[in-house]
Amino acid sequence: MTALAHGQGGPADFFVCDIFDAAPKTDMGGMEHPMFSLSTRPDRTIRQYARGDTTITVTPSVRGRATIHDKDILIYCISQLMAALNAGRTIARKLTLTAHDLLIATRRDTGGDSYTRLCEAFERLAGTRITTNITTGDQETTSGFGLIEAWEIVRKSRGGRMVSVTVTLSEWLFRAVQSKSVLTLSRDYFTLRKPLERRIYEIARKHCGQQRIWRASVTTLHDKAGSDAPLRVFRAAIRKMIATNGLPDYALEEETGDIICITRKGMSADQAGLAPLKPATMDAARAAAPGWDVYALESEWRGFWATSGRPALRSADAAFLGWLKGRITR
């Protein structure tokens, strides 16, 4: 194997996925919006999502939108690139990988049908197009790209099995890796077989993160999950998840007011660094930001506090309300 293929000794044309047991990681941007389908049937509906002034349109191909299980391929690629980057190796957008290693890493069966399903997943990933606008000042730029730019089978065995493939990631996804805008996932993520379980875990990982508790209304979770189920059916599915308690790292609990509380397992209030805010503080937040999800705002503030060095606060409640005034006027 040449140094170039390994991503060493200068700019690499391609990167070989050869890192054993790389920690699973995914990009934060892809966790923000429900880009992947939760359906087990081909989803050919064009979807539009918005966060602030940024909009995202997901356009599937005739084969349907990429599913959350198809995302395993991206997770594997990101995990390999991040492990190499952390080891000081040069990385590239074009990756060469062994299909068998990918299936093992994502805890999939390696039987003959698995290779066929993997091929179909590559096609859905390449066919799903993302269009998003990014506004800077008074100028708006709209760009479109596929979840992956290209893929091809580079070798087959005598039995016709896919043995090795190359994947070219989109510039958007590769930039997320280069900037390390990624989060580590539990290795047990791949044991979650139900699409909604995977999506709720993603949401918990993105919004709860290193803090102990994050709360959201069922309506907010429904929107963030990108579920097509009626709200009552979605609520019933969440209640079933609460009863089974099968999510890695996080536990769900239903509270009054149609609120779901997500708690990080094994983390005490002291470890979280900040005590829960008072009910009166949350009431004041609702009055100051009518129509906003105050629990999502609380989570955002806690993340801001953590990334700013966890400074000592005389009053967490006063600090949150002070931060909130600036947040809602942005």
Describe the model:
38% of the residues lie in helices and 22% in strands. The protein is α+β, with helices and mostly antiparallel strands. The chain has a four-stranded mixed sheet. The chain has a four-stranded antiparallel sheet with strand order 3-4-6-7. It has a three-stranded antiparallel sheet with strand order 11-13-12. Strand 3 and strand 4 form a beta hairpin. Helix 10 packs parallel to helix 12.
The count of helical stretches stands at: 12
Percent range of helical residues: 25-40%
Taken from the alpha-carbon principal axes, the silhouette is globular
| CA distance, first residue to last residue | 52 Å
Arithmetic mean of pLDDT:
86
Query: How many β-strands, per DSSP?
Result: 13
Low-pLDDT windows of residues: 1-10
Kindly report the spatial arrangement of strands forming the biggest sheet. Answer: 1-5-9-8
Sequence of secondary-structure elements: EEHEEHEHHEEEEHEHEHHEEHHHH
Structural class: alpha+beta
The largest β sheet comes out as: 4 strands, mixed
